[in-house]
Each structure stands twice: as structure tokens, then as C-alpha cells.
What does this fold into?
Amino acid sequence: DIQMTQSPSTLSASVGDRVTITCRASQSISSWLAWYQQKPGKAPKFLIYKASSLESGVPSRFSGSGSGTEFTLTISSLQPDDFATYYCQQYKSYSITFGQGTRLEIK
Amino acid sequence: QVQLQQWGAGMLKPSETLSLTCAVYGGSFSGDYWSWIRQPPGKGLEWIGEINRGGSTYYNPSLKSRVTMSVDTSKKQFSLKLSSLTAADTAVYFCARGYGSGSFYNYWGQGTLVTVSS
It folds into this structure.
């Protein structure tokens, strides 16, 4: 299996901050990476596919970059609704795997 | 707009079999790929497997011996069975639609908490 490792595990930030979450793959996955946002008690919400393509309706303050084994999710100016847990997911090969999550909390 | 609605028993005993069903409303069913993903309390997401309209499946190797997925195209539903349950199978189980085979998930069910306890 391809292992996905996110950092940091927890990130404290304030409204208006620019934040970056990193996701590393144990082997190259090209650009076959997605990002999700999850709030407590809810299903994950799909944000980004193919490392940098924004899903329709997702605010433009979200962006993704990277290829190979290192990827980032950036939120350019944090809004109150953005405090949640974020997961990366590789779909280069079966079995599909997720990162362990990054909890974004209010400072 | 695609919506997924799932249901199934929420309290099971060790050694029993989990059975969940997910119904798809809106969108196409025939050309899509359908998955189950679970999340133990307070932990991350684990992919269980995928099935397509034709019944072809891919399972997580760590669960393969205990997982069976099926699809009923006439009802636009797909199902998950997980046998020989232990407490480690306690989790919220989500159904989801894959954009393609082995892809990302753009639509999710609401989740079902399954608790395995004697």
C-alpha cells in the first residue's frame, strides 16, 4: 500500500491567516491526489482533485499543489467556516489510502 | 444532483456480520463506481472497497477475507457485508461515489455508526 503522511497533525491559526498543510506519499503518485474537509459528525467534503484542480463551488481561497511525493493544501485567508479536519487521499493505485488528517483549530 | 442515503444495523455483537445498504438518488448509476469507507471514532479514514455496475470489485487487502459488496442496479442500490466482526470494526461507515474506477469521492452518504460490543 502507498502510505500517506500529513503534517502537521494539528494546526492552530486565526481568521485571516494563510495556512499550508503538507501531505507526503511513500512513493510517487504523480498528481493522483485529492483533498477533503471534514467537520465533526459529518461526511468528508470533496475539495480538490488531481492535486490542484478545485471542485466546482469550492471557494478560491483553497488551492492545492505538488506532484510525485509531496503535496500541499493552502488556504489563503482563513474564514470561520474553514476550521475543520483535512485529509489527503491518493488514487494512484488500489488500495486507496488516506492521510491521517490535519486538525485546523482556532488559535 | 446526486444524493446517497444509507442504512443498516448500528449495534452488533462480536462474530456477527455487518450489513449496510446505500441508495443513489439522481445522476447516473450505470457508469459509476461505488465505495465504502469507514472511520473509527476519533480516527482517520479507511477505504474498504469498490464495486461497479457490473459487479466487479476491489477490496482493501486487509479486509478482503471478510468483505462482500454487491449491487442492485434495478433499485440503484449497493451493499456492504463485513463478517466476523470484532470491536476493532467499530466505526462510522460511509458510502461514496467514485468519479471513476479507483478515484476520488465527490458524493458521500451521511454515515452510519456501527458499534460492535458484547
